[in-house]
Amino acid sequence: MGTSSVLTRARGLLHIQNQLVRECLAELLSTFILILITLSGSAQKVTSFETKGDTLTAYLAGALAVMVGIYTAGGVSGAHMNPAFSLCVCLTRQFPWWKFPIFVVVQTLASFMSAGAVYILYYDAIWHYSNGTLTVSGPRETASIFATYPADYVSIANGFLDQVIGTATLIVGVMGIMDTRNKGVPKGLEPVVVALLVLSIEVSMCANCGCPLNPARDIGPRLFTYVAGWGPEVFRWVEGRG
């Protein structure tokens, strides 16, 4: 009885009444999980010299991470996890504009934190693979674990168009899945279908720029690599990549 009373009291103290705070915490957690799994899949692939993972496993990690993120916070914040999606639901009047900058900051912060967690998790592997030098280009570069970079042949214009088309495909697909006027997805399986949508885009539109599809997914980890030792080169259209 005493233990039950203590637990009830603790739940009461930890319960957050403010709806915005609850939504921000949910968005922080879902985005953190999304980027943590996505970047870990990339880190495992790169640092193991593709002996414990390859391009397909990295794609699967990213797609399944979307599913986990939606299941984690979809009922509280909607699990946007992506500024592009937040913008879309604002434009369609399904989300208030005043929350948009707040969600973008939370999503970017969560992505930054996730990059830090992956760096800690794969710290020894990253330094072993890179021979003690953190670089953005070259045969032992490790910056691509965290952010996406263009292929050698991709111009700035083509890279921009690539991201517009890829992100638009994602948003249109998600909005179609959510639209109750369309052929419905079995209730509770929406996150699975969204994950399959993400996987389909990854396996078809990833060659040019790595297919981030999410500004926060790229900006947050890129900021982390800048402060963690990769330097300002992470923000340049690196020679030899584009």
UniProtKB/TrEMBL annotation:
<dbReference type="GO" id="GO:0015254">
    <property type="term" value="F:glycerol channel activity"/>
</dbReference>
<keyword id="KW-0472">Membrane</keyword>
<feature type="transmembrane region" description="Helical">
    <location>
        <begin position="160"/>
        <end position="178"/>
    </location>
</feature>
<dbReference type="InterPro" id="IPR023271">
    <property type="entry name" value="Aquaporin-like"/>
</dbReference>
<comment type="similarity">
    <text>Belongs to the MIP/aquaporin (TC 1.A.8) family.</text>
</comment>
<dbReference type="GO" id="GO:0015204">
    <property type="term" value="F:urea transmembrane transporter activity"/>
</dbReference>
<feature type="transmembrane region" description="Helical">
    <location>
        <begin position="100"/>
        <end position="122"/>
    </location>
</feature>
<dbReference type="InterPro" id="IPR050363">
    <property type="entry name" value="MIP/Aquaporin"/>
</dbReference>
<dbReference type="InterPro" id="IPR000425">
    <property type="entry name" value="MIP"/>
</dbReference>
<keyword id="KW-0813">Transport</keyword>
<keyword id="KW-1003">Cell membrane</keyword>
<dbReference type="InterPro" id="IPR023275">
    <property type="entry name" value="Aquaporin_3"/>
</dbReference>
<keyword id="KW-1133">Transmembrane helix</keyword>
<dbReference type="Pfam" id="PF00230">
    <property type="entry name" value="MIP"/>
</dbReference>
<dbReference type="GO" id="GO:0015250">
    <property type="term" value="F:water channel activity"/>
</dbReference>
<keyword id="KW-0812">Transmembrane</keyword>
<dbReference type="GO" id="GO:0016323">
    <property type="term" value="C:basolateral plasma membrane"/>
</dbReference>
<keyword id="KW-0325">Glycoprotein</keyword>
<feature type="transmembrane region" description="Helical">
    <location>
        <begin position="20"/>
        <end position="39"/>
    </location>
</feature>
<protein>
    <submittedName>
        <fullName>AQP10 protein</fullName>
    </submittedName>
</protein>
<feature type="transmembrane region" description="Helical">
    <location>
        <begin position="59"/>
        <end position="79"/>
    </location>
</feature>
<keyword id="KW-0677">Repeat</keyword>
